[in-house]
Amino acid sequence: MFNSFTKTTILSLAILIILGSCNPPSVQKANQHYKMKEYAVAADMYAKVYKNSKTPKKDKLTSAINAAEAYYYNHDYKNALKWYSIAIQKGAKDPMFHYKMGECLKMTGKYTEAILKFQEYRKMQPEDPNSAIMIEGCELALKLKDAKTRYHIQEFKPANEPSGSKVKSDDFSPMWANKKRTAIVFTSDRPKGESSAQYKWTGRKYTDLWMIEGQGKKTTVKWGEAVLLPGANTDYNDGTATFDEKFTKMYFTQCNGIKGNEKKCKIYEARKSGKEWDITPKPLPFCTDKYNYGHPSLSADGEKLYFASDMPGGLGDTNTHDIWVVNYVKRGKTWGDPVNLGPVINTKANEVFPYIFEDGTLYFSSDGHPGLGALDIFSAKGSGLDWEKPENMKSPLNSAGDDFGLILDPTKEKGYFTSNRSASGKADDNIYEFWMDPLVFTLSGVITDCKDGKKLTKALVIISNNHDSSKIRVYTDKNGYYKVTLKVNTKYELFASKRDEYYYDSKEEYVSTMNLEQSQDFKRDFCLKNQCNDIFILPIYYGLDSSNIYTRSESKRVLDDLIATLKKYPKMAIELGTHTDCRNTFDYNKALSQRRADSAVAYIIKGGINPFRLDARGYGESQLVNICECEGGKVVPCTEDEHQQNRRAVVKVMNCDFKWTKETIKVMNDSALTGGPINSPFLADARKKYLEDKKNLPKQELDPNSKEAKQALIDEMKEKYDMIPVTKSRDKYSVMGKIGKKSIKFDFDSEETGIIIPEATVVQLITSKSITVNDFIESAKPYQLPDGTKIKGKSFDVKEIAFGDIKFTNVRCVVGTGSIKKAILGTSIFENYLSVTIEGNNLLLEKKPK
Is residue 630 situated within a structural domain? Predict the structure, then answer.
């Protein structure tokens, strides 16, 4: 991998020159190793020079500084911290040493101490913004320390050199190596690689591409031994590969050149030939000899290659790396000019190891964005130069160390990544696997009687969502309890009812799973009531000295809601009373409020409500809600807002058992609500006009035991409900349906939303030509039925399902697999009905009011 920390100071270089000219040979050798970036060897030599009693005092400071720097660049943060501390005690003045001590503390998980050290540095260098970024990262780490997470991680031992091995190695940057994702290519400097030579920077072998393959089911994969990727390695550093969608073309990082005579890293292409890979002799055309290019990641369509580079045009200096993208030019069959992803993704520090997922999400590692350690893994959505702000993937994927080289399975809930996390501050890169707990949302509650708290059995909870018109219908058990499972990123509205016993439905409740990252159990309890004495204020506002509601759309919407309520409760009768403030005379306000009440009631009647269920009453200023009086000896000055409180419309529910009979008509000129004289001449006239239409007359009352009465009851039921016959066996209800020529017995399940048809029945539907393979919806995973028929996916559309005379068109169904042997009828097919209940031998589908 690229070294993430390549800052060197002029002071360090000056010290090297001084030591090289006047110190013993051991120091000269240390300087040589340091200049060659062989930091592991150099660090230990400088430490020995410092501890040597013969070393002059004047040289101890420079030895301590160089030891600290060498340990730092070799990622040995524990020893780096020790030697920076010694150097500062000996008089080192460079503020950067305090900054690097903060980094070392951060990368060993000592976040509180790191914050203090970065604060020290900020006092010394207030113009440097990096201290604020580091402090923010430490604060984030402390915040996330005890946070809940869905992630589980463990070391992926099959790809890592055994922990008991005497020779340490770095194993990093996993990448899928076949379509089934049962093979992984990764980078390692373990022994028995392509070359036996030593890479002096690390003191280990050169890195190579290795592959590991697994066999068995996804949940019980058995991984084999890691082997060198045939033909893909040179005698020098090779690593960090990416493949095209066919896994016949590979791009990878190669450092030092194929022949070992180059100083930089470049990206090469290799093509598969049989079981081996052939490396193209030249690097990709945009790679020059002056800069480093590596960590390639190819887009799903093969047209974009993301990579990291220290080439000019980035946001940092030539010691830091940015992420770039280059497009493939089909006409020229070559790669174009690289484009920097810009300041949203890149910073003045390092952005490396990009991984472009198939949905276009970019994952990468950075030590420039606020993070928990050195390199943290981030994700960002976007394309081209337009990216959203990167999100830190948080703990446990990120740690105090370097975390990078992420890959994901199609669900994004499983994958692999690299980390050198260790409390000791020095650890090898190892590959880890991770998986996520499923995101589960449940909704439960208890339905009770509002008056006595009695728990209600078989109360109905109806749940609708913001994505489609489907509804979840669930009934309470003997303890009044219900529970359902909810979908992710969905808003829900729900209410409870038991209309055979309770007049009112409950008030609506709301639940949202939008953008939630942790599973959650929602609780929503309801109570139902029968009382019929509700009083509520309507937010209806009239123009000054006006009774016309038609000029105010918001008032019309309020009355539309009232009309819907009256249609929902056909036995409800109300008084609509309006009130004025005290301004103008008492008699004038009385008449004005009556006109306003008449205007509102006229709108309700026009909406299809029987005028005998309504009373319009104007109260004028007779029932002020405050002390704003304007006449007599108590004139009180009031604000406009205080006067507005008095200008209101009030609905009183006066009757919940309104019966439309001849007896009701006999009191046409009385209030059907109070028995007193009718208050509104307008309403009396409206009632006369209503009766002029014979269709509005009440039906003749019959002997309830007569055939006519029973038929009338049936007719009334048919007017209110569509009915589907059901049969009961134990606790299950079944209905007979028909798709094309095929009759199907469905088990009705009120807790299931969709329609599930078992595989064997689907085969019969295709054989009988009731459906065709073209009716199936294409999905990412085609499916094969038991008879060998190949279908595009498990979902399919049925042109018509008939339950006797009741027919439903364009119905979405799903193939039931595994243990599903019977067809299941869920509730989504009934989405255009108000409710679905079972009474006797019928499934009652309550129609919506016309």
Answer: yes
* Number of helical H runs and strand E runs in the chain: 15, 50
Judge if 684 and 788 occupy the same domain: no
Q: Are strands 835-839 and 842-846 parallel, antiparallel or unpaired?
A: antiparallel
Please check whether residues 432 and 450 belong to one and the same domain: no
Q: Hey, what are 661's tokens?
A: 């009979």
Work out the angle between the directed axes of helices 57-73 and 77-89 (0-180°, nearest 10).
150
Retrieve residue 584's tokens: 């103008």
Strand order in the sheet with 509-512: 471-475, 460-465, 491-497, 509-512
Residue 573: strand, helix, or coil: strand
Quote the domain boundaries for residue 339.
151-436
DSSP assignments along 129-152, one per residue: THHHHHHHHHHHHHHHTT---SEE
What span, in angstroms and rounded, lies between the C-alpha atoms of 427 and 549?
76
Residue 266 has pLDDT above 80, yes or no: yes
Asked whether 138 and 106 are in contact (CB, 8 A), the reply is yes
Distance CA 845, CA 718 (A): 10
Looking at residue 218, its pLDDT comes to: 59
The pTM score is 0.65
In 3D, which of 118, 93, 82, 117 has the Cα closest to residue 15? 93
Mean pLDDT calculated for residue range 193-220 = 84
For residue range 141-163, list pLDDT tens digits in order. Answer: 898 877 888 999 999 999 987 65
User: Does 158 lie in the same domain as 49?
Assistant: no
- Residue 434 and residue 151 in contact, taking contact as beta carbons nearer than 8 Å: yes
Higher pLDDT, 743 or 551: 743
The Cα–Cα gap between 203 and 168 comes to: 10
In this structure, the answer to whether residues 22 and 127 fall within a common structural domain is: yes
Residues 314 and 403 in one domain: yes
DSSP string, 289-355: SSS-EEEEEE-TTSSEEEEEE--TTSSS-TTS-EEEEEEEETTTTEE---EE--TTT--SS-EEEEE
User: How many other CB atoms are there within 10 angstroms of residue 626's CB atom?
Assistant: 13
Find where tokens 């008991």 sit: 164
Dihedrals φ, ψ of 259, to 5°? -100, 0
List the strands of the sheet with 376-380, edge to edge.
Answer: 351-356, 362-366, 376-380, 391-392
Residues 6 or more apart whose CB falls under 8 angstroms from that of 247 comprise 177, 178, 179, 272
Residue 839 forms part of a structural domain: yes
Q: What are the two backbone dihedrals, phi and then psi, of residue 275, each rounded to the nearest 5 degrees?
A: -100, 0
Decide: 347 and 368 in contact? Cβ < 8 Å.
yes
Residue tagged 């199907």 (tokens): 744
Instruction: Write phi, then psi, for 60 (nearest 5 degrees).
Output: -65, -40
CA 650 to chain centroid, in Å, comes to 43
Region 640-651 average pLDDT? 84
Distance CA 662, CA 599 (A): 27
- Is residue 760 in some structural domain? yes
Q: Tally Cβ neighbours within 10 Å of residue 130.
A: 19
CA 49, CA 125: separation in Å to the nearest integer?
31
Highest mean pLDDT: which of 124-128, 161-165, 715-719, 726-730? 124-128
Sign of CA dihedral 119, 125, 129, 131: negative
Residue 849 is classified by DSSP as: P
Write out pLDDT tens, residues 755-803: 999 999 999 999 999 999 999 998 878 899 999 999 999 999 999 999 9
CB-count exposure of residue 776 (10 Å: 0-12, 13-18, 19+): buried
* DSSP H helices in 92-239: 95-107, 111-124, 130-144
Cis bond before residue 698 (omega within 30° of 0)? no
State the number of CA atoms in the 13 A half-sphere of 726 facing the CB.
24
Left if phi > 0, otherwise alpha if psi is -120 to 50, otherwise beta: which for 134? alpha
C-alpha distances in angstroms, 336 versus 189, 264, 339, 685?
Answer: 33, 21, 9, 83
Token pair for residue 588?
A: 């004038």
What pLDDT score does 278 carry? 94
Strand partners, 284: none
